[in-house]
Amino acid sequence: MPIISENFRKKLHIVIYEADTPAGKFFDLSLIFVIIISVVAVMLESVAPIKIKYGYELGVVEWVVTIFFSFEYIARIIAVKQPAKYIFSFYGIVDLLATLPKYIGLLFPGTGFLIAIRAIRLLRIFRILKLVHFVGASNQLTEAIKKSRVKIAVFLFSVVVLCIILGTLMYMIEGPESGFTSIPTSIYWTIVTLTTVGFGDITPATPFGQFVSMLIMILGYGIIAVPTGLVTAQFITASPHENTQSCPNCSAEHHRDNAKFCYNCGHTLN
């Protein structure tokens, strides 16, 4: 007789991995609340006066959160038939990295700074988009970004080439006397100007250099809009007809509404 019954595993999977049920929604929202508390505690501990005054209380909060994350991590492994699928998945690695630092600090004193890694668990907050009211928009956005990735990659490559050319040009125009001491430095200035950040640590002094700078600034506004347009075009055509069901066998997500079997392994969905 198995230690964990199939019925218990199925119920646990529905609660942890799916947000279509009241229990699933409550679990996701509770998890997000704990993650936020954890990150706030880490942030407050980095402030010296607060750490001196409330260091013990913050330490207690961190241990409570760590224990909660530990049980949650174990529960996620138990809830799936193929634990390796979760353990080596993106979120599985994120969950593990967010749980280990406190234990590592016990074995190796002086490594408490690793607790800041817990901030990566904020990535779990994106799971709230899987709640029923947002699942359509969330899946549309994800699909739009995936379909646009090649176009965005080509666009970014073109921008990098443009920055190299313009940076080299500004190095030739201005020279070291104006702060453009090398081509890499000039490329850095070009990127800062193109993205309209403008730190002001390097500024062109010659009239021609200032004219090129104006062109780069104007070009920057157009460049910022391009990726948005690419994703938006795909967003319009993305399919919203997916739900929050996760396969209990292979952990595949993004199943179509009313689907009874997993599109990846054919296993029966909950």
Would you write up a description of this structure?
- With 270 residues, the protein is an all-alpha fold.
- The chain folds into two domains: 6-132, Up-down Bundle (Four Helix Bundle (Hemerythrin (Met), subunit A)), CATH 1.20.120; 139-237, Helix Hairpins, CATH 1.10.287.70.
- The chain has eight helices and no strands.
- The two termini are 23 Å apart.
- The relative contact order is 0.10.
In short:
The protein is an all-alpha fold. It is 64% helix and 0% strand. It is flat, with a radius of gyration of 25 Å.
- In total, the number of domains comes to 2
Binned, the helix content reads 55-70%
Number of strands: 0
The CATH class of the largest domain, by name, is: Mainly Alpha
| H/E topology pattern | HHHHHHHH
* Count of helix runs: 8
CATH topology of the largest domain: Four Helix Bundle (Hemerythrin (Met), subunit A)
| pLDDT averaged over residues | 81
Attribute tags:
Four Helix Bundle (Hemerythrin (Met), subunit A), flat, mainly alpha, 2 domains, Helix Hairpins, 270 residues
Helix-strand blueprint:
Layout (H helix, E strand, L loop, with lengths): L5 H12 L4 H24 L2 H31 L4 H5 L2 H18 L27 H40 L8 H12 L12 H31 L33
Helix pairs in contact: 1-2, 2-3, 3-5, 6-7, 6-8
